[in-house]
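Troubleshooting: if your tokenizer reports a length mismatch, compare your output against this known-good record of 321 residues.
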Amino acid sequence: MNNDKNYKGHMAMLAASIIWGLNSPIGKAALDYGIPPLSLTTFRFFGAAIAFWIVSLFTKKEHVKHQDLLMLFFASLFGIVLNQGTFIFGLSLTSPIDASIVTTMAPIVTMIVAAIVLKEPVTGKKVLGIFVGAIGALLLIITSQSATGGKSGSIWGDMLCLTAQLSFAIYLTVFKDLIQRYSSVTIMKWMFVYASMCFIPFSYSDVASINFSAVPLKVYAEISFVVLAATFLAYLFVMTGQKVLRPTIVSMYNYVQPIVASFVAVSVGMDTFGWPKAAAIILVFVGVFIVTQSKSKAQLDAEVLYQEIDQPEEKIKENDY
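Known-good structure output:
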């Protein structure tokens, strides 16, 4: 049963990573047209909130405790508002290539935060897996950049993208217990309502200034993808993965995003597929596999407990001699 849950968690995280890998070029296209970053982020939050509340009408109703509603506000602040808000602003200032490079820091940041907050052990396998995966992701990004001639972005944009990774790492670790108490739909509908409340007062003038009648159908399609796929579906998948997988494993799936971006570049003729990319993809998935084989705090505690229980028996046998 546990293996089945882990399998579903891995499949959910893989799906979310593929969607987010597509989101960088699609979201960047909408921004390049002239949709303000603050407006696009508001569309994401408000659109996802509506979608999750509609879905909740067809699922089992859950009563959320008042103290948990307060905790969900802070979860929304770190997991959505700061994460997506700083990322979209960072993406508007930097290039998709730079943004992808910064996302490779996510597993490292998450491992450190999990060690501090959850007391998760920093094992050799975990460090090795993150290192191997990062090498693969960076190899993909560098080869794609050299092939497409991508330009670097600004340091401020890169720092904002890094802030997004830090805030999401805090969300994955600090609020892990809260996430276990309610269904994914219940958690998400409240988190996106809070996120919308935080953004709408600041983005109202930006949204009102958009001439919606002049926006091309292509840009509407890009915005729809960002809202329904990269927000609604992706966060639903992440919630599924977060419930059964450790924070560091969840964050390792960030390494899948450069793979998706690379395949997109190849499919539209902007890049070619060769052995460096094949090697990079293998390294990414080997890295993820190594991290999944590392022992959690619960497993290490269970081993210590077993040794403590088993030790008196060994002493009795020694005394018998």
